[in-house]
Amino acid sequence: MRSLLLALFLVIAFHRGEAAVSCNSVVGDLYPCLSYVVQGGNVPANCCNGIRTLNSQAQTPVDRQGVCRCIKNAIGGVSFSSNNLNNAQSLPAKCGVNLPYSISPSTNCDSIN
Fold it and tell me: Locate the Bifunctional inhibitor/plant lipid transfer protein/seed storage helical domain: which residues (predicted)?
């Protein structure tokens, strides 16, 4: 039940962002990662595919800032443990993707180039 509530809140929080890459796209690309963020374990292959897709779509600073804001809004809008945050922060490296920002509630999205 908690996972379902977290998932629903993430969808709502992701929907609030503004960028050429829509927050709906961010939701679709990152939704497969939710089980790993909540429970840990193995990163689902479709999660890494989503992260790679999202990274390739966000080519401009405005797009990257928008994606960052969507993710940051989602993190800031839910209750999470340090394990959840650590799992989320580890995803790009586990998927072999170098994001220009950290998945963290303290990330300054406006400084991303």
Answer: 23-109
